[in-house]
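Fold these two proteins, one after the other.
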Amino acid sequence: MTFPRLGEISLTKFTSPEHVLDVLRDVEPGSTTALELQTNLDAAGQPGPLWNDLAAYEPPLVSANVTADDDHLVVDNELLRAARTDRGDRFLLVWVALCLADARLDAITREILTDADGHLDPAVINAVKLRATLDQRSEGAQGAKATSNILSLLERCQLIVPNKYGGSTVGIAQVLPTANAVRGAVALVGERLADQGFEAVPDRAVDLAVSIGVNAWLNLSVEEFRSAYEASDNVTAQSHRDTLPDSLAELDAQLRRKGQVVLQGPPGAGKTYVATEYVEWATSNRLEDSRLQAIIDGLPTNQRNVTDIATEVERRGLTCVWDIVQFHPGYDYTDFVRALVAQPQGDGVSFVPRHRIFSLICAIGEELARRGHEADLVLILDEVNRGDIPNIFGELLYALEYRGQAVATPYAIDGDASLTVPSRLRVLGTMNTADRSIAVIDYALRRRFVFLDIAATAEPINAFAFDADLTRQAALHLYSITAAALSDAPSGLQVGPSYFLATPDGSESSLQVLSARYVYEVLPLLNEYEMEGELDPGIVSGLRNDLAILNGLAQRDQVTGLVHHLSGQPWVTAVTTDGEANDDAANDGPDGP
């Protein structure tokens, strides 16, 4: 889209956003004239024709030949309103006004400084690189002075914090948030273009701004720009939790007392289910909306920092922020706490310390506490026993025990090498007691965590919403005989109820799904126990005999055999050809364990 531009800033004479805003702060719309504005800008040492670049007039300017000497009164606009009230987006709106006024700066921003998505390109935010590019384009904006002015404007208009070497910009140390300026930018662009006859269709002001690339001026993708505009008018009321369920009372009490709990139990006992149920309650039934990664993904890339994440938590009215990680043998401190991350800088890279999940959630908790926002934080550590605990936690084992005390780390972020675990952070681990790697759990970790047992019981099977009573009775039967077969084994080697919960899947009935889970998941698990010497030889073959599962058949045929066996039990009176019970088929089922 092209449109007339009555202004044209000087790329070789530096414009100071600070001095410009000082002048604009005192402008009185309807009283201040163009000449007075230009006189005040001249007195502040600002180059012309900023009087035309920053303000609109009555009567409207109809030609680029109009001068400040002509009798025109300043009309109020969004930039003037931001300057008068010292609004937080005022510096960014100066940048928007300059890009809007000058086709060269607009083109340089969209075609050189930013990538195809509209984000600033770190490799180009470099004095040497940018000057070479401008010289090559030969657009009249070449030269060291123009390069220096553009990079300085990016800094002074609060788009970036630059990396500097010897006073020269060599890269980006930090991109600054700009989403707060989106609504003001849309208003300013609409006003300035309307002055020149480019009226936006009602409810299409954002489309108009995007069509001329305003998103790139603010270091945002089109999607981020649109989302920021919608979010600026969308503040969610503070959520409130329901009453704590009795089933979670012990877990909640131990988390508040100790801060760290490990849910331990055999496979399928429901450890992750209990952890998720707790988070569901803690987040006031806003599980997905409250996940840290989802919050980060919903923010523009230049707002994915502690301060803006905390602001988004407040805006959403969240009662809890949570996330989950899974430990494994290759997981270490630089995956979990902090790490050095390669970042483009000029023609090379620099290594910058960055938060990982634990450091980030701690920093967010500290920022929320500083603001007085009482959101809890929950971090789930799935399969905690599978990780190398000393290598993953490092000095944090001390920090977990002494909440609120700063602990030194190897990496300084924003000049601070310390990390503090906030009092409202709950760390919730899960541990499979059948996993032989539990032997390597660090004693220091055991001392700092409360270990709560999640027993394998038939209760979840009784409570599950099966689609057919036949499947419920079959599930209870399988669970009962399996538990009986493992009665002499350690409690940690039981098979939990989640293996026996089944719903129809496509053309397969719930009974077929249940039988498949037993053949493909439960029996191989029991075989592992037997091969590791945890079960007496013959237990698995005994189960197979009781269930008429022939060992020599292919697994799919074993599933079919188990379906027929379960369908023919005494507690089934009639069965359809596909293995589902008729409505009158259910009598009293087998007793639970």
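Now the second one:
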Amino acid sequence: MSTKPVNKIYDHVNEPYLYVNYIIQRMNSNDSGNNKLDRKKIRNFSIVAHVDHGKSTLADRLLEITGVIKPSNENAQVLDQLQVEKERGITVKAVTASLNYTYNNESYLLNLIDTPGHVDFSNEVVRSVTACQGVVLLVDANEGIQAQTVAVHSLAKRNNLTIIPTLNKVDLPRADPDKVKSQLNSLFNIDPNLVLSVSAKKGWGVKELLEAIITRIPPPDVDPNAHFKAHIIDTWHDKYRGVLCLAYIHAGSVEIGQAVKWQSSTKQHAVKYLAMLRPTEEPINKAIAGQVVMVGLGPKGGGSVGDHLLSVEVQENTQSSPLQAIKHMVYAGIFPADQSQHVFLSDAIKKLALNDSAVSVNVDSSPALGQGWRVGFLGLLHLDVFTQRLLQEHKAEAILTAPSVPYKIKLKGAKIIKQYKSDEIIITNPLQLPEPQHIEEYYEPLVIGTIITPVEYIGAVTTLCMDRRGVPLPSKALDDQMTLMQFVLPLSEVVIDFHDTLKSITSGFASFDYQDHGFHASALVRLDILLNGTLVEELSSIVHTSRLQYSARRLTEKLKEMIPRQMVQIAIQAVASGKVYARETIKAYRKDVTAKLYGGDVTRRKKLLKQQAEGKKKMRSIANIKVPRDTFIDVLKR
């Protein structure tokens, strides 16, 4: 959830103490109305939708109507603060903004959270709704219901949130509001009379939407008289103030100087920074139950997403975190381009992981690439954005290895089970795989893929999913033109290029979303690469037996292109279970040892060629194949 102020004042201040003095002045000037705030006048809501349905544009109109920003062409997608968001035109981080709005002569505090729409950032949406009592379900009146629309509606229902269905882009010529309302009624059983229509670009109907937020969404169900308790929904790092947290207050109140503690620790801390995000920071002295505020405990205050911040009077631990455990879909190795940059890259990854709690970071090493990290992501776009943010925000260059999915392995044999302390283990790197004789069964992660496509592409979509080892589930017609299809698909077949291929075969009209379906038994095998009979561990992979021949040929052909020719012949072999499935040969450089001959007996020529052949045979038996580091990088990169 976001997070960093849009216009960070401290970026323009050279000395930290000047910024502290500025904050104190702002706090003194804001020692007003927040203490008188009534929790019944608070509304916490998110905007959820499929990607590119106009969430950020609608957020801009809400900011304008409530007076946070002035209408201007320069004030576009104000809540998309990251450079990667502006370049790609997508929302990556869920951002909060506290808005004041007067309705029926009463002042309300509206905490708006603009969320991402891509499936790879669904964790941001999950964290957002934990602080909300309602959501604005935004649907494009031109495109209709899309795959991610189904996912976010299901998420809202599971969290018992009030849903305000809203059609956007109704001003466009191709808009068909009646058709989309019929889809909402057919799929979600939503009364068409409750669906609002807006044009976020032109501002039509946005005021009515604000009023619906106030009248339909209930105030937060909190206890203002209990001891202070809040849970952390986002964190980020500040150069001068350390870790700052975005907290939703469940009970009590908090103020500057108050002693608090973390649920995970008994150490006490004093609240040093307290602010509302509008979306720039507005320092306050006190916050009450029901609010979403920024809290800072100083450079050594700590804090992590999902933890609870408690009053020191609370003796017992509170309930566990309301956030679900994150299931990483893709793992990749991240290594410094130069090992001298290891410490710098490590610091950059830690700071970025603090702001992106959806990643998991574990130390890894490679004989070819050196010391690095094995990082878990929610998808390939998540991986791309993370590495781009490393470069843009922290100036850290990194080498990224080929992504892989996690597998579950069931072990056999008392000795190996004792070694791993379990009969089942999760493998995120093929190098962790035990020997085949210790493996009883392989388990592959599956997902339930939801595809919404025009009816004319049903055949092409079905063929694609069956080629990717998909199993069809019952489909449902949204109307006479669109169909919702579902397949059980292996995750390894989805994360690489499935979405791009789907868009290609459906002329861009189909949409795709997936959810975890657990691990299921599968016929898997480890594919190894041998160079002149020597195993190259970095190039090992786990593949399905039906894809073994294809994967072996593709990898050996790529290695033949990448590895430079040397003085000896190099045999590249792809081996699985002791059988060679593909082979390529890199011929040796040939030195013309007979060039110095200008005539004479033919036996002299034969003698020189025989000596050369014997020398190469000896060299091949004792020489190590020199594979440049750049070759490993080229092969391992996605």
